[in-house]
Amino acid sequence: MASGDEQYHPKDAVKAAINGTMITGAAGGLVSAIQNTLTKRNVGAWGVFTRSGGTIAVFAAVGGTYEFTRLASANLREKDDSLNQAIGGFLAGSILGLRVGTTPAVLGMGALTAVILGAYDYTGGGLTGYKKNPEMDEFERKELLRKNRRRPIEETISELGEGRGIYGPGYDERRRERIKEKYGIDVPAKS
């Protein structure tokens, strides 16, 4: 069972695998078409499938394997966490290593992909950094941050001194006294 009061709900791994295969297969078709276009010899329009069709197959296999393994391991473990992405990433990366044809490449590509995908999911699954709480109002969040980092005015004045927009209580009277002492001029008080 999942931790806490939340109960895990199984997901359809086969449907996700088919969707993943179709999406990454289409991306593989695009890459294959680009490879076909950049060849020096004219191999024709069917070269997308005959000459560089292996690219389509690898892309489709990687996407389908990742999605199926990720959801199947989540269903078997009854947990939805980063380990599922790492397991799916390992098998998907292993397929990439199969093109090289050596065991170290299969294991290395699988391990690399597992670490990258597992870490990506563990850190929040975003490249933009920490996700904000969607339920908290932005104004309230910024006010909370200001209060959290606010320092007492006495501490600021003791470190920086007065002036430059930083004035403590009673500043006007002290300023009038300093000017009177130093220059002998009476500065009128503000009303």
UniProtKB/TrEMBL annotation:
Biological process per Gene Ontology, one example term: mitochondrial electron transport, NADH to ubiquinone
Membrane topology: Multi-pass membrane protein
Compartments (UniProt record): Mitochondrion inner membrane
Key words of the record: Membrane, Mitochondrion, Mitochondrion inner membrane, Transmembrane, Transmembrane helix
One cellular component (GO) term of this entry: mitochondrial inner membrane
Listed name of the protein: NADH-ubiquinone oxidoreductase 213 kDa subunit
UniProt source species: Hyaloscypha bicolor E
